[in-house]
Amino acid sequence: MATAEAIPASQEEGGGGLFGLIERIGNKVPHPVLMFFYLIIGLIILSHILFLLGVSVTDTVAVPVPQEGIDFIRGALGGSVVPYDPATGQVLEIPKYVVEERTIPIRSLLTTDGIRHIFVSFQTNFTGFTPLGVLFLALLGAGVAEYAGLMNALIRKLVAVAPAGLLTFIIVFVGVLSSLASDAGYLILVPLAAAAFASTGRHPLVGLAAAYAGVAAIFTVNIIPTPVDAMLTEITNAAIGLANAQPITLGANLLWNIGSSVLMAIVATVVTNRIIAPRLGKWDPSQSDASAASSDQGETPPELEAKGLRAALFAFLGLTALILLLTLPPGAPLRRPDGQLDGNSPLMDSLLFLITLFFLVAGIAYGRAVGTIKGSADVIKAATKQFNTLGGMVLMFLMISQFIAFFNYTNLPTVIAVNLAGVLEQLAVGAIPLLILLILVNVLLDVILPGSVPKWAIFAPIFVPLFFRLGVEPSSVLAAYRVGDSPVNPITPLMVYLPFILAIAQRYQKSAGLGTVISLMMPYTVIILIAWIVLFVIWFALNIPLGPGYLPQTVVP
After folding, report:
1. Mean pLDDT score, 206-230
2. Is the pLDDT of residue 290 over 70?
3. Would you list the DSSP string of 223-278?
4. Three-state DSSP state, 512
């Protein structure tokens, strides 16, 4: 093990200052597996205490309509039965969400039902944990591409063609765009960014932090509508019914999302170059894991690499043509039954699988061209090698999945969210201060409830009608919600991919711990949040359209 003298002062336990203190404290917390085990024990005790006290809340929430059941009944009746209004004779469209009043009590994990739930749900909590499937699926294609040498070739090409001053922005902005493919950015872009910075002699953790900021801290906006946008829009429209306002469309926040994507990517780039890079200083490769240090060994000759990249490009184009064939024609399999491609269409829902296919096919084509993959046995070997490294990650996901499932079972997140929302509702302040408070409450809740959709299902029925009475359009409330929903993602302990990010960091700095990652990401959280709030206030005050035809404030003639 290296001595302390071998470590640059800027890297030794994070150095001095506030962020160094955060790193030192964070690195003293137990291993994530033990940390979540202790959290589960604490949750069990707390849930029973609150249950004995009879804690509960009554609130109006947006709940999903069981569309599959309706479709089944309709199909069983021949498919021709449609709902209609007998007064007008008009066909009615069944909403995807409805608003209803519910009383939500705290449920104990120490009652008979609670103990039964712990035992019965333990397996399904783990097997139904979505990030587990995402992890294996995303790393299947990426693992084959890495084994073939395609990943290193792409990194070298990116570094060669990208202007040195724009490399950081490109990585951050690609991270922002990666929300189109759900969680693929965490598992593919973050390791690539760290390797790209290492290949240029810059500190790999700078690249890791930049990519992680783009993927997590700016997650709820994009230049293209995402599946999450579709769900947020549906929940907003369910809440709009309480305010007697006009429903919004998927493009209600389009201009805001585009502007935020670009401007917050610029902010994250400045934070990376002005704060993170100087703090980490020069990278000492001797502090990296042996596997990371050896990743650049055995480089492919340039002529052979160019041949491999051409083969990968042809494979990419061929697969792209196939996807277009399955998407563009009317009635194509990747379109929705109504013919649309936006929102929750099969194309959008399968983006992660498509990305895996692209990496898998392009990796095989590259490997065949350069000789690193000679047959199906090598492909299987590549996938197996990648999966062999995931043992520790799977164990952490086992504990994380149990904590999140038990936490949701107790109803604690909902009770906390409703109570905080009730406090905001009672405040007699103007629209802008109340919108800022909504953002800040959302930031606090994101620490314990990171998902975008569950929080909005609680907030929308409360705040959409409230702000509409103040002359604030529902699209503005949704835009404000986006501001508070993302910046805390990189530092919350309940970020399910935080252990994976830590594992990548430890490839390049063996001494890295949770405190290292959190202290690296803290400047992004604080500065992006402040910059985003300022941008929102200016946008709202100037009444700049949030989307085509959607002004932030109601204009009274």
Report:
1. 91
2. no
3. SS--HHHHHHHHHHHHHHTTTT-PPP-TTTTHHHHHHHHHHHHHHHHHHIIIIIHH
4. coil
pTM for the full model?
Answer: 0.76
Phi/psi at 296 (nearest 5 deg)? -95, 5
* Residues 237, 465 contacting (CB under 8 angstroms): no
Q: How many Å apart are CA 377 and CA 358, to the nearest integer?
A: 20
User: What type of residue is 103?
Assistant: T
Of the candidates 477, 492, 491, the residue with the CA atom closest to the CA atom of residue 424: 477
CA distance 425 to 439: 13
In the numeric block, which tokens belong to residue 103? 């009383």
Q: Could you read off the pLDDT of 467-496 as tens digits, one per residue? A: 887 788 899 999 999 999 999 999 988 888
Which residue from 321, 408, 398 is spatially nearest to 358, judged by alpha carbons? Answer: 321
Cα–Cα distance, 144 to 369 (Å, whole number): 14
Residues counted in the chain: 557
Amino acid identity of residue 221, one-letter, is V
| Tokens 């001797």 -> residue | 286
Residue type at position 186: Y
Residue with tokens 């709940």: 63
**Phi and psi at residue 103, in whole multiples of 5°?**
-100, 125
Closest CA to 180 of 130, 219, 141: 219
Average pLDDT (414-432) is 78
Closest CA relative to residue 520, chosen from 208, 202, 176, 201: 208
**57 — phi, psi (to 5°)?**
-140, 150
What is the secondary structure of 174-237 as a DSSP string? HHHHGGGGTTHIIIIIHHHHHHHHHHTTS-HHHHHHHHHIIIIITTT--SS--HHHHHHHHHHH
**Distance of alpha carbon 26 from alpha carbon 21, whole angstroms:** 8
Q: How confident is the model at residue 81 (pLDDT cuts 50, 70, 90)?
A: low
**What tens digit of pLDDT does each residue of 44-79 get?**
999 999 999 999 988 776 677 776 666 665 565 555
* Amino acid letter, residue 63: V
Q: Are 81 and 32 in contact (CB under 8 A)?
A: no
Strand (E) or helix (H) holding 57: strand 56-64
Distance in angstroms (rounded) separating the CA atoms of residues 208 and 19: 17
